[in-house]
Design brief:
It holds the Pfam family Thioesterase. This is Thioesterase domain-containing protein. It comes from Armillaria ostoyae (Armillaria root rot fungus). This protein has 414 residues and is α/β, with parallel strands linked by helices. It has three domains: 270 residues, Rossmann fold, CATH 3.40.50; 47 residues, no CATH class; 43 residues, no CATH class. It contains 16 helices and seven strands. It has a seven-stranded parallel sheet with strand order 5-2-1-3-4-6-7. Helix 3 links the parallel strand 3 and strand 4. Helix 1 crosses helix 16, helix 2 packs across helix 3 and helix 3 packs across helix 12. The protein is globular, with a radius of gyration of 22 Å.
């Protein structure tokens, strides 16, 4: 009986480069090959989807990725996305073309995210955090293709992302054009693309004007082909993808779809620094609550108990609405102050992303988030970037083992 092919496909993050995953793909491939139970009759193969220009809405990158996926050999697919690559992976996994009529996913069956900001980046790392995603320290680094030479590890042609429209025309006849057309029909009719609102664009431009000396702004001005402030189009295109991290409604919609996804086979391994003193769980939760409030991912809980509340007799007047809004802002500021005070009581373990804990529990999916302690770094930005680097993630082999066990467990359900 022929073996069932299970494909692992890696997706880079925002402005990711070909050093992101280091040797993790080949390490996991070899680790799995030695541990897949014979009774599963499964063959694992790995592909590294090429880096892509993080421009235009994320839905554009998702569309191209899903079209490319139709050209690959049949069989279940498990996506592995780092940072914002996990956002793209989530959109692809929950896309209607992968879940026809709401039934069990027929192609992308599981997803592994690595430090993906499903609820946004923690506010205290936004500037340095984004700058780190752009950073290039100038040192010679081995590329993923150099570190992952293996017959079962495929480095996908960069033209797939750099020139997909041209590349697809030269695809061998194995994949019919009808399958691509079918996907396109699903994409255009059922998955409206999300674009940042004008207010978000204006806010972004205002932010860059008022933070001229921040690392991200300096990087953008240094590397843009056009004067940064001279072209609204450049700003919109380059930040339509990245700005999705700062749009609470879009983040909530994507995350809600993931939590409700019929497969249910997903996990987000988030990085965490090691606290210098004994960790206090309450303090850590308070710190995350502040982040949830600041990013707009959580509402301020009402201080009025259900038993004492007075039912509304009709629609609120304009003055009542204004007063209620003012009261809500007061509660929000009071709670934020309280949480900040609690957070300052102790030195907490820092994380790059906002978590679904405390006030965020209402969003669901908390059991799918697993932390990875990164001991060989100075801060949470270093932890985010050092997840796949042995000298920084001192339990790198432990991560390979954890991910391997997760995949093997899922394979029993395929």
């Amino acid at each position: 009986m022929a073996q069932k092919l299970v494909q692992l496909i890696y997706i880079h993050g925002f402005r990711g480069d070909d050093t992101t995953f280091q040797s993790f793909p080949i390490d996991l491939q070899q680790y799995l090959a030695a541990r897949i139970p014979p009774e599963l009759n499964i063959c694992i193969k790995t592909s590294l989807y090429p880096t892509y220009k993080s421009v235009k809405p994320i839905s554009h990158a998702t569309k191209n990725f899903l079209e490319w996926l139709t050209t690959q050999p049949p069989g279940p697919v498990i996506l592995l996305g780092h940072s914002m690559g996990g956002l793209l992976a989530a959109e692809a996994a929950t896309h209607i073309s992968n879940n026809p009529n709401g039934y069990r996913p027929h192609r992308i069956v599981a997803m592994i995210a690595f430090d993906t900001p499903y609820l946004g980046m923690h506010p205290h790392v936004v500037i340095t955090g984004i700058a780190s995603l752009f950073a290039d320290d100038g040192k010679d680094k081995k590329t993923e293709s150099e570190m992952n030479e293996h017959p079962d590890v495929q480095i996908v042609d960069s033209e797939v992302t750099d020139g997909w429209e041209t590349f697809r025309k030269n695809i061998p006849g194995r994949t019919s054009s009808s399958s691509l057309s079918l996907f396109s029909a699903h994409s255009s009719s059922s998955s409206p693309s999300r674009s940042p609102s004008p207010s978000l664009i204006d806010h972004t431009r205002s932010f860059f004007n008022s933070h001229a000396d921040d690392p991200l702004v300096r990087w953008a001005r240094k590397h843009s082909d056009e004067p940064f402030a001279a072209s609204k189009r450049w700003l919109v295109e380059h930040f339509q993808f990245g700005s999705c991290m700062f749009d609470p409604p879009e983040l909530k919609a994507r995350y809600t779809a993931l939590v409700k996804w019929n497969s249910g086979l997903w996990v987000n391994y988030y990085t965490q620094t090691v606290p210098r003193v004994q960790e206090d769980g309450h303090v850590e939760e308070a710190d995350n609550d502040v982040a949830l409030l600041q990013t707009g991912m959580a509402e301020t809980p009402s201080t009025t108990s259900p038993s004492t509340s007075v039912p509304e007799l009709g629609p609120r007047t304009a003055s009542e609405t204004k007063a209620a809004k003012k009261d809500d802002e007061k509660r929000k500021k009071k709670l934020k102050k309280q949480r900040e005070k609690e957070a300052k009581k102790g030195k907490v373990a820092r994380h790059f992303v906002v978590l679904p804990t405390g006030l965020g529990q209402i969003l669901g999916g908390g059991e799918k988030w697993e932390n990875v302690l990164i001991e060989g770094v100075k801060d949470e930005v270093g932890a985010h970037c050092g997840l796949f680097i042995r000298g920084q993630n001192l339990d790198y082999d432990g991560l390979v083992d954890r991910v391997s066990r997760k995949i093997v467990g899922w394979c029993y359900t395929l």
